[in-house]
Structure prediction request, 183 residues.
Amino acid sequence: MRPRGAVLADPVLDRMLHSQDEIAERVAELGAAISEDYRGQEVALVTVLRGGLIFLADLCRRVDVPVTLDFMAISSYAGGGGAVRITKDLDDPIEGRHVLVVEDIVDTGLTLHYLLKMLRQRRPATLEVCTLLDKDARRIADLPLRYRGFACPDRFVVGYGLDLGGRFRNLPFIATLKDEVMG
Ligand code: 5GP
Prediction:
C-alpha cells in the first residue's frame, strides 16, 4: 500500500495526504471515543450526502452503542453565505434524540453552521459534530466540532467520499490535487 506523501499516478492528483491504513486507524479511534461518550445511549448518526457517506459507513461499524442512520442532501445557494436548500430531508424526527452529524470536511463552516441551526430547531436532546477533516485555516463560522479526524491543510482534497466534479469519491485514500488543476 502506498504511504503518506506518495506521488500518485493519476495526472490530476498530487500527493497522498492520508493513506487507507491511516484513515482506518483514525476512524477506529473516533469510533471508540464516540462509544465511550455515548455509553448507555442511542445515537442518531446524520450525514450529508454524498461526501459523508464513505466516512459514515466505516465510522458506524466502529461504534458499539446502538445507532440509527439518516441522511440529508442539500444544495448551496451561490453567494448565499452558507444558506442551503434541503433537497432531501431526514426521514426520521430527531426531537429528544442524541444527534451526531457526521461530515467529510468542514471548510469555512458556513454550510454546517446553517445546518446545525436548522437541526437545533427540531429540539434534539444533544447535537454534536464529527468531521473527518477540519480545514480550520479557512473557518469563518465558529463551530463546536466535538470529534475531528485530521487537521486538513488549505488545499483541495479528494478521495474517501470527497469529489472533484463527481469523480474520485471511491479512492480509498485522501489526496491533494495538483495546483494547476484548481487554477
Ligand atoms: P463550507 O461551508 O464548510 O465552506 O463547505 C463545506 C463543503 O465544501 C464540504 O462539505 C465539501 O462539500 C466542500 N469542500 C470544502 N473543501 C473541500 C475539499 O478540499 N475537497 C472537496 N472535495 N470538497 C470540499
Observations:
- Helices lie at 20-37, 53-60, 110-120, 179-182.
- The chain has a mean pLDDT of 92.
- The pocket of guanosine-5'-monophosphate is lined by residues 51, 82, 104-112, 135, 156-158, 162-163 (CB under 6 Å).
- Residues 16-178 form a domain with the Rossmann fold fold (CATH 3.40.50.2020).
